[in-house]
């Protein structure tokens, strides 16, 4: 009990970004008894949190003011940097000694830079990209790939306990969490493109895709992404569970990192081209299984249950 | 019982090709009480089978003469065609009404051609590519992706029961089994290359690869191949469990099929280039996790437990 109380943040927990992930995590945090205040630039997201009984602030700065823990659930490095050091000045207004928990997937070098700048002001930075999707966010069952100082982990502990089923502690240096997350995204992005390429090719050959799904998920060609995304193709359902543009961003980061390191990554590069093609063809906000529609378009293939496409 | 006896082939079962897969399957077939005669062009393989108490013939033709079932476990379409219609004339010497069970991974169009030619002579053709590796071959637990006429299935039934834990019956037309297998190989080949690319990049960043394995196998970036092959990289063990040149062949077939169908498959194409590079660099007969060594070579990265490489 003493440890648990000690690990409670002094001020409230500010959740910045109330999209599908942030909203779920804010809900889990409240469910665990934490004092949560949320903010999102979109009014609809703020209203969604308020309708759950959540306390909403009028700006990121107002939410973060005096907060012992700030959970940042924005989409990228630029937004994270703007929150911390832009007009909202989260780095300055959060409680001294407080912990900034950053979820956005980004280049580890950027993480190291942001963390060093924040920590110079006497706050802690936990590099904590998450995986698991909105459903697990809301049920408090995310997986977190985290790195940071013992103080950063201690400050974030109650929050991590509330939102995550599994926390990988990957070292004391911010950047390690991001590096592991990027390895995951490198693989996941390729696997989505591979699933779409192979399944569209199966359709081109006239194979029954439900049967393909059954056989492949029991065979050596299976992947987590194949198992998760191919049902969208079989059902012709491209409503976004995870959008094409997320991997335009994430495989873009992989290729930027690889280029900077003089590391050739041709398989990720080929997969990225297909995400770019899907986004360029107007499907950027559709489900990432839409890459199958690009392959279909480029090969005169008809996919199952295909509605008249915008593209 | 009646059905089981009816499904027993009239003559012996000839197993042509006693490499790691064929030897295991011949062993499973003998274990199930079938009358097996084996042949391989390599004397060492014939001796291996004889040392298990197996009956060995002096040629493929001699093994197949009068056989009610011929199980072909050679490596490709050219060898299969040579067996059937070359000097050994398996198509002519096997028992009329007998069944030829073909395991090699090949282009479905080639399967259709070979099957039509064989069936014109009054024999049956079961298109039956297998997956599962040598260990499962020997324990009778392979997965078979099979298509063929009801007569072909009936003729092969006792043999399939002996070697496979799971038989997918994919239609009456030879070629469907091959098409499903090629979809599997398309995915599996990409996933091997992706695993090697991402893990070598993780090594380039100084991450602990055992930890990468632990985190990724519990995350959305996982694949059957990642889980199976990455331990070879972590242990620095490139003794061939499945050789680089197998996917040089199989992704080559995927790209040939895709080109013929005017189907762009850029992710498989990129993966194939890495298998070609590994083979070209002298690792064609090494384990296919050797692609990680190519990435390491091309980026000045040191992999764990790396022995002085031949390459």
Condensed summary:
The first copy, chain A, has helices at 2-7, 20-31, 43-51, 60-64, 77-85, 90-93, 108-119, 133-139, 150-163, 176-204, 209-217, 224-235, 244-260, 266-283, 291-297, and strands at 13-16, 36-39, 55-56, 69-72, 99-102, 124-127, 130-131, 142-146, 164-169. The first copy, chain A, is α/β, with parallel strands linked by helices and 311 residues long.
Detailed description of the structure:
- The structure is a homodimer of 311-residue chains.
- The first copy, chain A, is α/β, with parallel strands linked by helices and 311 residues long.
- Chain A has 2 domains: 171 residues, NAD(P)-binding Rossmann-like Domain (Rossmann fold, 3-Layer(aba) Sandwich); 119 residues, N-(1-d-carboxylethyl)-l-norvaline Dehydrogenase, domain 2 (Orthogonal Bundle).
- Helices cover 55% and strands 11% of the residues of chain A.
- Chain A has 15 helices and 9 strands.
- In chain A, the strands form 2 sheets. In chain A, strands 3-2-1-4-5-6 form a 6-stranded parallel beta sheet, sandwiched between helices. A 3-stranded mixed beta sheet of chain A has the order 7-8-9.
- In chain A, strand 8, helix 9 and strand 9 form a beta-alpha-beta unit.
- In chain A, helix 10 packs across helix 12, helix 10 packs parallel to helix 15 and helix 11 runs antiparallel to helix 12.
- The radius of gyration of chain A is 21 Å and the shape is globular.
- The termini of chain A are far apart.
């Amino acid at each position: 009990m003493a440890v648990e109380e000690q690990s409670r943040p002094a001020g409230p927990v500010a959740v910045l970004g109330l999209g599908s992930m942030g909203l779920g995590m804010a809900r889990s945090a409240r469910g665990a008894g934490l004092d949560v205040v949320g903010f999102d630039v979109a009014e609809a997201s703020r209203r969604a949190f308020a309708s759950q009984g959540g306390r909403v602030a009028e700006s990121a700065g107002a939410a973060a003011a005096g907060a012992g823990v700030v959970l940042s659930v924005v989409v990228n490095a630029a937004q994270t940097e703007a929150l911390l050091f832009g007009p909202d000045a989260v780095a300055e207004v959060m409680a001294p000694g407080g912990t900034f928990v950053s979820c956005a997937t980004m280049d580890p070098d950027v993480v190291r830079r942001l963390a060093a700048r924040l920590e110079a002001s006497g706050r802690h930075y936990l590099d904590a990209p998450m995986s698991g999707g909105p459903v697990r966010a809301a049920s408090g069952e995310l997986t977190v790939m985290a790195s940071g100082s013992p103080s950063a982990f201690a400050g974030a502990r109650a929050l991590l306990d509330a939102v995550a089923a599994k926390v990988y502690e990957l070292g004391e240096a911010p950047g390690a969490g991001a590096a592991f997350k990027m390895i995951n995204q490198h693989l996941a992005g390729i696997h989505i493109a591979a699933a779409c390429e192979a399944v569209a090719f199966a359709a081109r050959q006239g194979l029954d895709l439900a049967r393909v799904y059954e056989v492949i998920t029991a065979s050596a060609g299976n992947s987590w992404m194949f198992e998760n995304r191919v049902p969208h193709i079989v059902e012709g359902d491209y409503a976004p569970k995870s959008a094409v543009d997320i991997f335009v961003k994430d495989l873009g980061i992989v290729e930027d990192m690889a280029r900077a390191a003089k590391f050739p990554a041709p398989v990720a590069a080929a997969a990225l081209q297909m995400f770019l093609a899907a986004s360029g063809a107007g499907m950027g906000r559709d489900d990432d299984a839409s890459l199958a529609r690009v392959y279909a378009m480029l090969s005169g293939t008809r996919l199952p249950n295909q509605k008249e496409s915008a593209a």
